[in-house]
Queue: 3 jobs
Job 1
Amino acid sequence: MASGRPRTTYIREQLVALDSGRRLVFGALCCERLLPNYISFQRNSGWGDFAAVRKALDCVWAHVYGNAQQAAEIVDASSVCELAAPSSDDFTSIYVTAAQDACFAVCSLLDYVLENDIDKIVQAATYATDSVDLFVQETDGVEPGDPELEAKILRHPLMQKELERQDSDLEAIRSAQAMSRDFIGERKAINGYGEIGNLSHPMINTAAKYQFNAHHIAVDTDGSAVVIGFADNEFSPSRFVLVQKSMKVDERDRAMGFDKVHIQIEDQSRSGYGGIVEVWAGHDRLTVLLDQAARAALKIDGDIEISVDPRHPVLGDAVLELKKLCEEDGIPFLD
């Protein structure tokens, strides 16, 4: 980045050279780093509507992928997302401002979809750096009146990491032949979104997710059990997830916990019953949050994130059956 110019001026200059779709991808990647901050706020405060914020950002991704929604639907998604923004007067959580920034950044992108105003994308990127700015002030004890305030925040590893991510995304987006699903999936993975988004310290090795692109999806409901499978390859998978539940259980099964959803990755030695905390079904991904016992049973350090093609012919059935299983076990399912 050239020095001596405001960050917003630099970002705007870079975006002017991109087409509308590429601009939107850049803004959406910024927002993906902000959404985990909202989750941290919701967990910390006990208030929030992450599903609304997630759905709003998924509207943006749908537009990127050529599945544009009607203007009225976009306006409605933006309104619901804005209502999910917490008031700083009502909460003391350290993440309250970051949660606001997440909501407002997503709303800015929806405004761009409707208005094609490039400054809305610049605004979304600015919300990402603003979140880091205030977080650093509050956690590192930087005094507001410190004459070195701006310089200290700029040098902070969190701010440097966010700026590096934005610059790296811009370069990759500018160089890519097309904004394909594979390219976008790679950019999301490279960013390495942590549990608290761009507020996670870059020097800390945060828990890695078990991630893959599910090119093959299968559902089997034979009456005795429901089996849902996601794999990176139909015939020779290197990564896969099987979710299943028996429909015929007795008291002994219940006493042993075998009446719960069973989850397996790769081989039978990496499996277990229960342990699913929450499931998110987004436009192009499924995220399965696990407790520590389930992570240990599956021999992974983080949650499961499966990238999916919304056009896959079996995806709708798979999501529907997965939602039913979650409802039966009392597992929150956000779609």
Job 2
Amino acid sequence: MGGGVPRAAGHPLLRPLGPPRGGGVVSPRAAIGLDVGGTATKAVVCDEDGSVLARHQLPTPYRGAVGLMDTLAEAVAALERQVPGVPLEPTVGLAVPGIVDDTRGVAVKATNLDFAETPLAAQLADRLGRPSRLGHDVRAGGVAELRWGAAAGHESVMFIPVGTGIATALVLDGRVVVSGGYAGENGHALIRDPATGETVLMERVASAAAVARRWSERTGRSAAGSLDVFAAAAEGDPVAAAVIDEAVTAMADVLACQLTLVGPIPVVVGGGLSRAGEAYLQPLREALDARLVLSGAPPVVPAQLGSWAGAMGSAALALQGPTHHPSSPQTPSNPQTPSNPQSKEHSR
């Protein structure tokens, strides 16, 4: 992938994740990462080379934080049964959607999961009896794409899953931008709807769900998803072409402002619209190139890690060490798992 800045040592995400476990053959360190979605919870054991050693998926419960903790404990136990001989880092990473304050370990607001100022990191640490680290699902996905995926080899990335809604993970010089959990909510930027002139959220025009909805509203035909609209455009449907152009224009207007501030860092596109491939990515590149008069468009590429990126990124964050510990000593879910006594030192 062209453009961007080569990796440099010394940044929290880009330095080596930790020391070897002793003499002889060095085995990559591994950790558990959890990613809670609206309908499914994904869990992985991922090592620092990006190899997924085990994975597990189960439905996300609708029982509030207590029910969620039970589900996460079940997922952790299931993963440990899959890798009985693999020494795991004690910290477990967790990613959730919404407004997430990573530093405090708090889900500030997650409407779909009914969280409000919920201290998930502390709750998970207490439930498992082991350290934990909380992050945002999109930011975790961005970390994974930067370390192991489409932006590997760079130290900065803008990761944009374009699905039902739109949010962005911004990693600059190896540091995830959090801002109390509000960073990256560019789907909520206000724009003028090119069809109606109304002021609307950008994701109401530019998301994958919006592309399908806007085409259906204008044609009276149903669309299973945004890919149906791209298929119609490829067959010469002018309405489909107009809806896609509006989505690209809205996205480019907002992204160009962001990229003008942070520089022409790689843009990695995930979610439903990324599956349209160059039919979406090339117009987006061209629109950005026209707007970024100083730098020109940065690399704009599809994500590589798919729907497991959030869980992998949670594991990467766990490998950096914990932010929260159990409030009282408890028996860990896997008492035979050795901890790395140096991991806390190397997480600073």
Job 3
Amino acid sequence: MRSINSTTANTTQSASSPFSVMSTNFQSSSLVTQRLDWESLRKQARQLENETDSKLVAFSKLCSNYSTSVITSGKTPSSNTSSDLLFITLSNEIEDLLSKLNAINTKMSECLSAEGGMNSNATVHTLQRHRDILRDYSHEYEKTKRTITSYKEREQLLSLSSNQRETGLSNRRMDGSSNNGSTSLFMKEYDHLKNSHSLIDQQIEMAEMTKENLQSQSKSLRMLQQKMNTIAQKFPMINNLVQKIKLKKRKDSLILARMSNGLGTSNPSKDYDVLFKIVLIGDSAVGKTSLLQRFAEQHFSDTHITTIGVDFKLRTIQVGNVRVKLQVWDTAGQEKFRVITKTYYRNAAGIIVAYDVTNGESFANTKRWIEEVKNNCGDDGVPMVLVGNKCDCTDKVVSLQDQEEYAKLMKLKFFEASAKENINVDEVFIELTRLILERQERVNKDTSRKDNEKLDLRESNKTNKKSKDKCC
């Protein structure tokens, strides 16, 4: 009896094993299909986000052009037909892209919520990031659209002729009817324009009076200078005294200029001694915005929107005896914003070239960024440091030895940093500030030395000339 039961059980187990194998294969193939669908949806989402980004940039430029034409030239709506058509076209395209992006996010959410789906922390984080990008894009679009609409409404008010304005206002006052909202808005705009014109006229009159006063003072000073030169030529002792006074004033001005640079001095009227502009550059997605937020605001966020154009933040630090306020500019690393970011190299006191230690291409592109700095800032020795971000990651592809050799080759200092774990972030900015202060002090010393040499040369020439006159 036992043998019969065991035989039956073995038969049942052998019969059910093919079905279990088929079920396992079906589940694995289902997971592979879900993985492929997820990657395809992510790729579509990134493409739509890039297209929406470029459309929003064009939409913002249209808003700027529209506001300029309305405020400065006062064009009527009929003359802005091309701008209105472009506004409608861009609005429809952006709304269509946002709708598609919303549908893609919905499909990604359904892919995660499916039974047996790959509902991991990484995928949930990725989906949340795409949702945040969609929310920010929608907010930016609505804000720009409201701005352009307000300019269009204001333009329609300003397009009314003066005759219609006066006639309409007088009729409403005679009839005793209450003004509606548009009439009230128009009256406020009309009064604002009248006050603006009167203020401009007053400013022009004041500028003309100031110009006349300055011209009369300049004329008086020239006459006084001529009299002083005549007296100095007649009396050599007075001439020597005047030259000594000029020399003393020149040396005092050099001392004051050196003190005004903030080196070793304090300014009680401000919370800093000197202000430096620092530009943060590098490829897209290397963590430039995260480094800036960690340094300026002491926090880190896992979700970021790609920087459009430029942004900057401020922070005051103490380096030695000098209180330095740093104005750090965060630039977009994408190629389409390269024309915008080039203008922000002007008057830069220091440069931070950032790269991602988990991305070898970003490290290789630092050479191109350094060449761009030299082309825009000149070879006058603007201090630069290299920063390898995301050093806390385990999937590093750029070794520490390669970074050290490259920094030695380029004659630059480098740091491995992590905005997420707050590793070497403050040290990067403190070291760059120290290099800027040292360079400024060298420049001031060289300038002071050259000026003193020029003054000494002038004095020696005058002395030689006097001795020759006496000999003759």
